[in-house]
Amino acid sequence: MSHAAAAPATSPNPPPREQWTGQVGFILSAIGSAVGLGNIWRFPGVAYENGGGAFLIPYLVALLTAGIPILFLDYAIGHRFRGAAPTALRRLGGPRARWLESLGWFQVTIAFVIGLYYTAVIAWALSYFVFSFDLRWGDDPAAFFTGDYLHVGDPGFSLEFVPAVLFPLALVWIVTIVVLGAGVAKGLQRVNVVFLPLLVVAFLVLVVRALFLEGAPVGLDALFTPNWAALGDPNVWIAAYSQIFFSLSIAFGIMITYASYRRRRANLTGPGLVVAFANSSFEILAGIGVFATLGFFAVQQGVGIDDLEGLTGVGLSFITFPAIVSQMPGGPLFGCLFFGSLTMAGFTSLVSVLQVVSAAVQEKFGLSRRAAALGVGGVSAILSILLFSTTTGLLALDVTDQWANNIGIVASAVLMTILIIWVLRRGPELRYHLNAVSTFQVGRIWIFLVGVLGPIVLAYMLIQRIITLILEGYGGMPGWYLLLFGWGTIAFAVVAAIVLSVMAWRRSPDDFSAWPPFPPARDDAEAAKEGAR
Fold this sequence. Notes:
0% strand; transmembrane; single chain; membrane; Na/ntran_symport; transmembrane helix; transport
């Protein structure tokens, strides 16, 4: 429950804030958000290309020094200030820095954009789940995916819809709107309580099957054989920080929003450690399954793992894996498990991304939960169908994803850490809050990791990516197309953030008192161990 003062006369009785039913529900939902498409199709390839087994060292360092600290930062902001990203950041900024709300809206807008194209990938996975029964992609999965299935055209904007994408995409949006409208406990939590165990079981079956394939040891040797020389390459360390950052769902509103639904006396850091290590465990499991399967494929082709193409992303999932499934014993079952897992992992992440948008709109404009879900979901569904169910959908998706993730989310993280720790000096308060409610205490090193190490690494990633995109472009696509769907995405997020932040609130978020008080009374400080130990 929010410890808020009386609301303005226009709404004397604000509705009580939704809550998770308990700690287990929150943990499963947070893991469901973190475990997504990137765990399955990004981590194995990134690890392989950056030192194999040796990559696990910078990966673990990145998890401990950036991933978990920034995850704790999100938790502290959302739980202490009891709102979606714009509400929580405005309250954190206080009377002198209410402009911080605009950063929250920037995060919301990026989440909105990601939701538009993320849904399309889930629709593809759902289609391929059905295709697995009769191996419909035939002998040439690449031609089937880009030609027969997506009908990929030239860069541009087309209204030539692809029915095979349109119908599953519409279905995904209908289910998503229903889940968002059902609320936190009956919608998001229930989906994760059902889907996450199913995902783990399905993927474990898939991994066990993969381990018994001919050539599986070849793939595992390729993945885990350490290249110790790679540890001297700064780009390998940047790749590790990048992987951790993108896989934990941090710094763009999700965990701020999720933490705001926890009870006021709720452990934050302990569950945070569970979420972080569960996410990394699933990534390693995915690496084992994927590379055992790639080892089988390489042996069947009579080539080395180095000679295979499509080891990450869309190519791995929708071209390489179908080719493998066609050659392996029991291929249809393996295909169903893989694409079923991909669908479930994507969907649990999707609803968390869209909850960021729905919750922010609900709070800003005083809407009911169902009205916000229907409004956000309806607008998103229309735009998603117009942009990503046409012959130009794949190209638009690829470019938008590149800019939204590598520019939008990273810029959001850099701004948030610098503004909160250095400009507003709220690090000690947030650290106190974590320690006041949690079993695992964080020391002063946490502020250093969030305020110094994190911004330095992330700023380097951001600058490096911007320079590369400006000088080299992306994917050989025309400059005007990158300007429209790439830089245009960032411009849209900035403009939307400014416009939404200056619009009037239906119910003022400023009549609010954070709990526990800071600075604390002496007995309160002793109860919270003052956070120093």
